[in-house]
Amino acid sequence: xxxxxxxxxxxxxxxxxxxxxxxxxxxxxxxxxxxxxxxxxxxxxxxxxxxxxxxxxxxxxxxxxxxxxxxxxxxxxxxxxxxxxxxxxxxxxxxxxxxxxxxxxxxxxxxxxxxxxxxxxxxxxxxxxxxxxxxxxxxxxxxxxxxxxxxxxxxxxxxxxxxxxxxxxxxxxxxxxxxxxxxxxxxxxxxxxxxxxxxxxxxxxxxxxxxxxxxxxxxxxxxxxxxxxxxxxxxxxxxxxxxxxxxxxxxxxxxxxxxxxxxxxxxxxxxxxxxxxxxxxxxxxxxxxxxxxxxxxxxxxxxxxxxxxxxxxxxxxxxxxxxxxxxxxxxxxxxxxxxxxx
Length: 342
What we know:
Elements: H1 3-14, E1 20-29, E2 32-40, H2 43-64, H3 72-79, E3 85-86, H4 89-104, H5 114-117, H6 130-136, E4 145-148, E5 153-156, H7 166-183, E6 189-193, E7 196-200, E8 208-213, E9 222-228, E10 231-237, E11 242-245, E12 248-251, E13 267-272, H8 275-281, H9 284-288, H10 290-299, E14 304-308, E15 314-316, E16 336-340
Antiparallel strand pairs: 1-2, 2-6, 3-5, 4-5, 6-7, 7-10, 8-9, 8-16, 10-13, 11-12, 13-14, 14-15
Helix pairs in contact: 2-7, 7-8
């Protein structure tokens, strides 16, 4: 073999692997399904980037899960009623954001719902009786969470208060995953945790087509397809964690005003700039109902909404007109989740 052929052969071996889309689905982190899809210069680089996203989500789960006694949130629930408790900046900022969403939604979003919510166990089909709800309900009020920005502390104003960040934690984890990918130079990607997703970039001149699925039909049945670039989208429904008893569906979206499962809509989808925002606002419609919730959504400049009412009809916010790319639907079964439609 002559020198020229040797150099050519070495050059071929030195070339990077072919750029491609890399996708992985993982179950079990934060009690949900994680999907990451990205465009990478080579497959190994893409796999390492996905590993970094999953590591970040595991870190957040260790910090925020109420099912882990050692988590920071569990420690707050155990000690914050005794007096001011120093917490990490990350948790302090999340609690601050949660209170802002409570004000924005007229109290429909409230992390202290857990003061009643902990009495439910959807896996074991356990629910509280009326006496238990009545006793626990006074502890449900976001104003019981006292934050001191100077000392970076949290305190509960009375005993019995519990918090649960489940209403924004998955969205926050998606945002953190996106930031991890950006730090690694990834510019086209999709990250989801359950019903919360965020997209960066496009699909080489085309938007990501995100479908809102019908859970009672096949995965290809969608009520709406939405073209998205650099956006977050969250869908909440009564099908994520629930059980049925005597014809009543008991599910994990708790009305903070009543302590019962909130059931004024079938599903709500929010589109906005960040998943923590879309996640935090997607439960509002269940508590306030479609009309009141849509009034709130229409007042917020950076989000749009699609609500499936109890009778199956679909309504959307003023920014989501068919001319802007949404395929409308007149009547559907409950919507479930979002997945990119390729």
